[in-house]
UniProtKB/TrEMBL annotation:
Protein's name according to its UniProt entry: Galactose oxidase-like domain-containing protein
Protein keywords: Signal
Positions of the Galactose oxidase-like Early set domain: 613-705
InterPro entries assigned: Gal_Oxase/kelch_b-propeller (IPR011043), Gal_Oxidase_central_sf (IPR037293), Glyoxal_oxidase_N (IPR009880), GO-like_E_set (IPR015202), Ig-like_fold (IPR013783), Ig_E-set (IPR014756), TAT_signal (IPR006311)
Keyword Protein transport: no
Domain Glyoxal oxidase N-terminal: 267-594
Length: 820
């Protein structure tokens, strides 16, 4: 074998005859837009079209995109793209039927568009899958010399014969001087055939030194919370990160009936860079509205509070039809057309074409809205009812509707107030077909009130985590449940995940360790740039008993790692969200006595205490188009890059939160990022771009704009179908159509879990007390006193909780307690 290789090496030093027409065709395409969407390299894989799935352009000698025929000598041969593939639908078969001399091989095309870039002094791991009928094969490398051009480099490995798919792996020598690209493939130099598929090429990572801790050992392991010196001036329960890095904090009346009656509606814009707040004139009571960033960076705010509940129980909260757009540039609200119905607590999900779909909430008459609403990006308005597909189903309040990779919507089962929807509590909705398919597996579906659901990193994996929850009507102790679903499975179903770690709970007499199955509702879940999820905040019961616990969930291992807990109570009307600098901000808490926590805390994750951060030194273009390759420069090596959609969160709910992986190719400090061609994975809009090093340390984010449907059509030549991925097409389970047209869904005026017979509308005396509270006046009044309710006025003559035993119109007086 040694003499054969020596002989072959001597021949290959001479220039090789090549198919110049094929190379010219590929080169011409590299200079402009491709006529097809090429199969991209996966994360870290430097090989373009690694599985031969993308056909080459006309005139490319019948070879797949970025592959060419090569070889020399006197032999008879065929190159065939075959369906007998290791994965996908195609593989490459090279066969010699007669051989006197030379070889034949399929090589990565020798062009700047296709040949992988390399760095001098680095090594690369190469692998492929193959089947072979001949022992006369080898993995052959060529290199591009910046002065002398393309030339043979070396043979690295002989492949054993294999009748079934077998993986071969090899590591290159260090890249020699003056070399900027390489190409490689499998040479066949004996009669027989080799079929290959699924090529990969990864740079061998430099040894990563252990990061130097810049905090205390506890901080470097668990992160650090800091309570900011400046308090939030408004009672904000809605937090929207704007495309300039500032944060819109919306309060409306702030769950204060007094402010509502006075017409005092507030918002503020917080600037993380200087820690200042600017109060914004707010035209309506956006308390418990819906919101989402539009593709141009403005914020669509829909519905809100038209009325607080009547003391006599004649009506509950009411939702208005008003809708507004907030402009981050002018920091002002402007009115849109009205929605077709009122929606207090609506969902808001942006679609792949830039439209926004909304479900649920309460109407102007306090009944549940069964009207789906669609905001048209093209027309910049809410569409007329007859233009919108309807299920005539009541999806509840803040139903978590997550856009799937194929354009359908996944209702995760996370919602607000009371029981879940009928059935399994989770479903997939196909807007085009107007069908709803039940999804099984969600644990204790009627105890997922104010749980959190997130599309896990990366969005390409299509996995959703749902965690925690309770039920503010029956008011059990909140649970520790988590459920994970793979939406790419043929028949998606939730499976139980690991329980949320336990922390401490303040039951009114100081913090004690959680026991048994105690978990939390009002959970906040935040996607982090290192690919983990921070879950934080919460409470054990309805607007009471705050839980102090936080942990990092790792999707790769399906595990939780407890970290430092926010020192501030973060229950009802709290929110937590990612800032562009990689920290997490948490604000709000509105316990049942009607008070408000104006303190703001900020979490510094452990990754920010591991020494210097990588820096994105330039972004060549901040206007991105689907399917593009975008170049950035960095100041030191990075391991990955991603887009994170900025938060628009309220009541544990942000269905648009997503982390989109950007497969990368590295050439020194230049990094080329492959942008997804699927707008359902990354709906149009502004995103935070993070570069992350091998220790998980992220850069400060740069803002990039992923353009909408007009740019997509321009790039592709046509508007593609939303259903570009074939998965979950054969869902099993109960499928229903649009159903019978109905006007609304009757709901109880105590839907918010509060007994309106006592106190003012913004004070929540629970309809069901925690289990440890005995059903006596004395025990209930003691609990109310420990939670700072004080004495409460009785509304009307009914006293269902027996808190006014002496009949003086005031609850929990001395006479009431003596009698109870």
């Amino acid at each position: 074998m040694t003499s054969r290789l020596t002989s072959r090496t001597r021949f290959r030093i001479r220039p090789r005859p090549r198919r110049r027409t094929a190379l010219l065709a590929v080169g011409a395409l590299a200079a402009g837009l491709l006529l097809v969407s090429p199969q991209p390299a996966s994360a870290a894989n430097l090989v373009q079209n690694p599985g031969f799935e993308t056909a080459g352009p006309p005139g490319a000698a019948d070879m797949p995109y970025c592959w060419e025929k090569s070889g020399w000598g006197d032999n008879d041969f065929t190159f065939t793209t075959v369906a007998d593939a290791h994965s996908g639908g195609k593989a490459m078969k090279v066969e010699l039927t007669r051989r006197v001399s030379g070889d034949r091989k399929a090589l990565i095309t020798e062009s700047a568009a296709c040949a992988p870039p390399v760095s001098v002094g680095k090594q690369y791991d190469l692998s492929l899958w193959y089947k072979s009928t001949t022992p006369d094969t080898s993995v052959t490398l060529f290199r591009h010399d910046t002065s002398a051009g393309w030339q043979y480099w070396t043979d690295l490995k002989t492949l054993d014969m294999a009748g079934t798919w077998t993986q071969a792996s090899v590591r290159t020598p260090e890249i020699p001087a003056n070399t900027d690209r390489i190409t490689w493939g499998v040479s066949v130099y004996g009669t027989g055939s080799v079929t290959t598929d699924d090529y990969t090429m990864d740079q061998v990572a430099d040894p990563v030194p252990e990061p130097e801790c810049t905090g205390t050992p506890a901080e470097c392991a668990n992160g650090r919370w800091d309570v900011l010196p400046t308090r939030n001036p408004v009672r904000s329960m809605h937090s929207v990160v704007l495309n300039n890095g500032k944060v819109l904090l919306i309060a409306g009346s702030g769950n204060s009936e007094e402010m509502f009656e006075a017409g005092t509606f507030t918002s503020a814009v917080y600037d993380p860079e200087n820690g200042t707040y600017k109060q914004i004139p707010t035209p309506d009571d956006m308390f418990c509205a819906g919101h989402v960033q539009l593709d141009d960076g403005r914020v669509l705010v829909m519905s809100g509070n038209k009325a607080y509940p009547a003391a006599n129980g004649s009506h509950g909260y009411e939702g208005y039809k008003d809708s507004y757009v907030f402009d981050p540039v002018t920091e002002t609200y402007s009115r849109t057309n009205d929605m077709n119905d009122g929606h207090w607590y609506p969902s808001a999900t942006i679609l792949g074409n830039g439209d926004v779909i909304s479900f649920g909430g309460l109407r102007e008459d306090s009944t549940g809205s069964v009207t789906a609403e669609l905001w048209s990006d093209a027309e910049q308005k809410w569409l007329e009812l007859w233009k919108v597909n309807q299920t005539w189903s009541y999806w509840g309040l803040y139903p978590s509707m997550i856009l799937m990779q194929d354009g359908r919507l996944f209702y995760s089962g996370s919602h607000v107030f009371g029981n879940n929807i009928p059935g399994t509590g989770s479903a997939i909705y196909d807007y085009g077909a107007n069908t709803v398919t039940q999804v099984p597996g969600l644990q204790r579906k009627d105890e997922r009130d104010q749980s959190a659901s997130v599309l896990l990193p990366p969005a390409q994996d299509q996995k959703v985590l749902t965690l925690g929850g309770g039920n503010i009507e029956s008011n059990p102790a909140a649970n520790r449940l988590t459920d994970v679903i793979d939406l790419k499975a043929p028949n998606p179903a939730y499976v139980a995940g690991p329980p949320i770690p336990q922390g401490t709970v303040d039951l009114g007499a100081g913090k004690v360790a959680q026991t048994g199955d105690q978990g939390k509702m009002y959970v906040s879940a935040v996607l982090l740039p290192d690919g983990k999820v921070l879950e934080t905040g919460g409470a054990l019961h309805n607007r009471a008993d705050p839980v102090f616990e936080a942990s990092l969930y790792d999707p790769a291992t399906n595990t939780f790692d407890p970290v430092a807990a926010d020192p501030e109570a973060r229950g009802y009307h709290s929110s937590a969200f990612l800032l562009p600098d990689g920290r997490v901000m948490a604000t709000g808490d509105n316990p049942g006595n009607g008070s408000w926590n104006h303190n703001v805390s900020v979490y510094t994750p452990p990754y920010l205490l591991k020494g210097p951060r990588p820096k994105i030194t330039s972004v060549i273009d901040k206007e991105w188009v689907y399917g593009d390759t975008q170049r950035i420069t960095v100041d030191r090596p990075i391991a990955k890059a991603e887009l994170i959609r900025p938060a628009a969160v309220t009541h544990s709910s942000d269905p648009n939160q997503r982390f989109v992986d950007l497969p990368l190719s590295v050439d020194g400090d230049n990094v080329d990022l492959n942008v997804t061609s699927n707008p359902n994975l990354a709906p149009p809009g502004w995103y935070m771009l993070f570069a992350v090093d091998a220790n998980g340390v992220p850069s400060v984010a740069e803002w990039v704009h992923l353009q909408g449907p007009s740019a997509l059509a321009k790039a592709s030549g046509d508007t593609p179908s939303a259903h570009v991925h074939d998965f979950a097409d054969a869902l099993k389970g109960k499928t229903t159509g649009p159903g019978k047209k109905t006007k609304s869904k009757q709901v109880s005026p105590t839907l918010a879990g509060c007994d309106r017979h006592y106190g003012s509308a913004n004070v929540c005396v629970p309809t069901a007390f925690p289990p440890e509270v005995k059903p006596t006046t004395a025990s209930r009044c003691a609990w109310l006193k420990n939670n700072d309710y004080g004495r409460l006025r009785l509304n009307g003559k009914d006293d269902p909780l027996r808190l006014d035993r002496d009949g003086d119109g005031l609850a929990c007086g001395k006479g009431d307690v003596r009698r109870g």
